[in-house]
Amino acid sequence: INRIKQIARKTRITPTERRPDAPRTEPPPDTQTCISPNMIGKIFDNAFRIRTYNRLVCFVIGGAFSYSFANPDMDTVYEFFPIFKQNKYAYLTFLEVNENHGNVFEEKLKDLCRFYQKQPGYLYTKIIKRKNNLNNLSKYIVVSTWLKSENYLLACNRMYGQLLIKNIQNYANYNSFLYRIVVDDSDYLPPF
Question: Which Gene3D superfamilies does UniProt cross-reference here (predicted)?
Answer without folding.
Answer: 3.30.70.100
